[in-house]
Amino acid sequence: MRDDRIDAQRVAKQLEEPVREASALAKKLGLDPYPVNYWIVDYDEMNQLIAYGGFQTRYPHWRWGMSYDRQRKTDQFGMGKAFEIVNNDNPSHAFLQESNSLADQKAVITHVEAHSDFFANNEWFGMFARDGEMLDAAAMLEAHGSAIGSYMDDPEIDRGEVEKFIDAVLCLEDNIDQHRPYREAGLPREKQGPEDLRDRLDDMNISDEVRRQVFSEEWLDDLAEAEEAEANLDEPQKDILAYLRRHGMTYDEEKDRAVEMEPWQKDVLDMLREESYYFAAQKMTKVMNEGWAAYWESLMMGEEHFAGTDEFITYADHQSRVLGSPGLNPYKLGKDLWEYIENSTNRREVADKLLRVKGVTWRNFHDEVDFERVQELLAPDPTIDGIRSDTVDDVVALGPDDPRIDYETLDRVLSAREADEESPVDVDAYPWKLLTYEGMAERHYSLVKPQNRGFVRRIRRSELERLARYMFDDELYDTVEEALADLDYSAGWRRMREIRESHNDVTFLDAFLTDEFVTESHYFAYEYTRSSGDFRVTSTDYEDVKKKLLLMFTNFGKPTVAVYDGNYDNRGELLLGHQYNGIMLDHGQAKGVVERLYDLWGRPINLMTIVKEYDEHDLEIARRRGREPEPVEAGKRIRYDGESFEVHDLDDELTERIAAGDVDYDTKPDDWLA
User: Whole-model pTM above 0.85?
Assistant: First the structure.
């Protein structure tokens, strides 16, 4: 154990400078992260932290052991290596594996600083924290773990019942209203489902004769029908956990009926629901957040040479593996989209300036503009781009009012040189310290990077026309040189930060996955085809690609299910509806969840959904002709009474309520849409 502590202390000492300088560089680039505490952990501790979702303490449950074993095998068999884990907290806590190389540690640190900036500034993360309170997720989760552990250790409570109850709640952990802020109290209360009067009469020991005389079955039926109509929820309730907390019961096998939840059950449900809301933002922004971190990591490690000469090859190799992972890769997709946004914004800024040059219009733009000359003029000032210890005098020659120069740091360097003292700044290692944010924006201007040459030329006439439509001072400059001297080099970064503040993955993809991006990046949509019995490319059209991706990220990629009635058929049964968007439920998994849900409601559960049915004759014809058969969509109601399942046809009115036309991906809170 002592040797382990010595190793951790040695690694921590080695990383003090990279941690300090990465934080300073992130701020110089315009990032504004939470403070980050870094912790050095060994291989086994890292796997435990990953299993616990990035925290050191969670409630006792078998899921953590399963996650730990999966992560250990993933690493053991070369299917993925754990480099870091960072949690959304203020301050954030990041864990570095001590066995990783220095190149990997530096990459992780730059990656973490960008994640922490995203946590601190994205509005979806801000929806969880209480007004005026500091976020302290670690303390919250530790308190939950302690409370649930005490219930499991309580001799008056069956530990197996606690685990069974947790299992049931976890089946529904994503069935919350993630587009609304988490509130501990004050949740909207929908209409209560009425109690069937027959149940009350059964408990009153009224004789059958009196009951027949006073309460006729016809009158009871009419009353039940009227009350049922009143009880239907005005709007489906997406937060199923909150609904169950207010109205749910548990089935008591001894009493053979539903009974009130025990206090410990209500407490556990409250805690797990709170955790669901805490982790929701991470699930909603996976592409944005990982792409954001990958973008700034790449800029700091590669373009700003945070990776030393002897470290760069190792870093580049590992990053290429991360970005080159097969399947839908959130790092790659996110980074590509952020770069596209930066380039598009910068291109629009360049085009805006060029359209104000005398003689240049949106109609003749591609003929009049010398794009090679434009590329030369966009290049950063050689002095800004080539800062070294032997070029400091060139920096001084830029003059005392140049907004790109950090004169406070420059004065310290010059003062040390005049006094023949060691420079307080290693200019060769950290040239960025002599620059301001404006200088950094010019130094890293995206349109002059080799991979982006030609991006300005590819601007479409339709975009040029839109830019010129409301342009009044369209002859502001006499020459292209004069126009580009007025360029705002920070436009792309500023736009990226604006988007980082308000979007989630669904709105991010909906807004910025354009035809140009899909075509240039070679994205395509694929589906399982019944005619061939395998997966095939079905479209390269950007609208199809966008729809496919949006469906994968809406509601964390899980089916959207909501409560439609808490007193269905006037029998106290729960009616859920799968908000169908063209993708069928996995009925095996759905039935498993319904069985667990029964434990939280205590009475029969009904689940409405829509299935695709295929005529065998049509399917055979489609196979012969090499095309897809047209399915018939039919509404179904799956009912579970605690023992068995029944499947019923769903009436047209309810089928229409759960069927989607055009899927609504605009999931921003209402007050953001003004």
Answer: yes
- Nearest Cα neighbor of 227 from 515, 485, 572, 669 is 572
H or E stretch covering 84: strand 84-87
Adjacency order of strands within the sheet including 84-87: 36-41, 92-97, 84-87
Between the alpha carbon of residue 90 and those of residues 30, 120, 274, the distances in Å are 19, 8, 18
Pairing mode, if any, of strands 250-252 and 92-97?
unpaired
Beta strands in 435-532 (DSSP E): 525-529
- Going by C-alpha positions, the residue among 411, 405, 439 that lies closest to residue 424 is 411
Crossing angle (nearest 10°) for helices 286-298 and 312-323: 160
Q: Determine how many CB atoms are found less than 10 A away from the CB of residue 279.
A: 18
Q: How far is CA 515 from CA 158, 546, 653, 658, in A?
A: 58, 9, 38, 31
Inter-residue contact 549 to 628 (CB < 8 Å): no
Tell how strand 632-640 and strand 645-649 pair up: antiparallel
The percent helix, strand, coil of the chain (3-state, each to 5) is 55, 10, 35
Query: ∠466-468-472 over CA atoms, to 5°?
Result: 135
All structural domains of the chain with their residue ranges: 2-131+284-325, 332-501
Structure tokens at 482: 């004069």
Q: How far is CA 430 from CA 19, 104, 228, 307, in A?
A: 13, 19, 71, 11
Are 658 and 651 spatial neighbours (Cβ–Cβ below 8 Å)? no
Of the pLDDT bands very low, low, confident and very high (cuts 50, 70, 90), residue 257 is confident
Q: Which residues contact 624 (CB under 8 A, 6 or more apart)?
A: none
Residue 612's pLDDT band (cuts 50, 70, 90): confident
Residue 131 region by backbone torsions, left for phi larger than 0, else alpha for psi between -120 and 50, else beta: beta
Top pLDDT among 153 and 528 is at 153
> Which residue is listed with tokens 């010595």?
6
- The enclosing H or E element of 252 equals strand 250-252
Alpha-carbon gap, residue 595 to 604, rounded angstroms:
10
Residue 191 pLDDT greater than 50, yes or no: no
